[in-house]
Amino acid sequence: MGLMIKQEKTSIIPRLDTPSTYKDHQFKGSDQEWIEEIQKTRTLYVGNLSFFTTEEQIYELFSKCGEIKRVIMGIDKIKKTPCGFCFVEYYANEFALNCMKYVNGTKLDGRLIRTDLDPGFKEGRQFGRGRSGGQVRDEYRQEYDQDRGGWGHMKAREVEERNQQMMQVYEPIGVIPTGASAKINSRLGGPEIKHETSKRRRDSYDQEEPSFDNKQIKLEPEFGSQGLENIDAEESFNADREELANTEMSDDLERD
Lower CB count within 10 Å: N or C terminus of the chain? Predict the structure, then answer.
């Protein structure tokens, strides 16, 4: 009679309805108690939500896996606005396991959401645990995420400090270029500067060019001294010719 060996069936595909290795550090029980609570839980933690995702959108998606008892939206403990997570509580453990199979890793409001089995919601867990009031992950996030408030808290503070330093080293314009408006500098935060260059130029014009009444006008001949001599010679020549013509006329009269 041969020896029969019982072999257990194994699968290369991991189960999707199992909890992750994460444990809430504020859970007051032991590791074994944590595992027991997780195995019978009806509550899910949902992370990586957009700050703009509504409670109605949560109901619409998660109700496909079973009847929902309630949804608790995570909020910023300072601003009292949504900060990217929530708790979904079902009426049965089976519904929570179905959600781990079919909803975890899918898209909601354009983002890949993450679900995890949770031992159960308690009052106070709806608030973010970060120093800024939101989630801890958003404290140290270095990339810009528009759906989660822009920069992470640390990065946003660095950007703000750098902008303040740039404003401190800024110096208002001291000299306004010729032709520019004198009000430009005042709009940039500096004192209004008048056009000293234009004023000095106008003063120099007033000194160098006297008024029309004080000028001594001297009319010069149109053709110069040489032109006057030519005019006198021409007039003398015409007079001689006229005198000669009169003489000739008188001679003619006498001959007649």
Answer: N
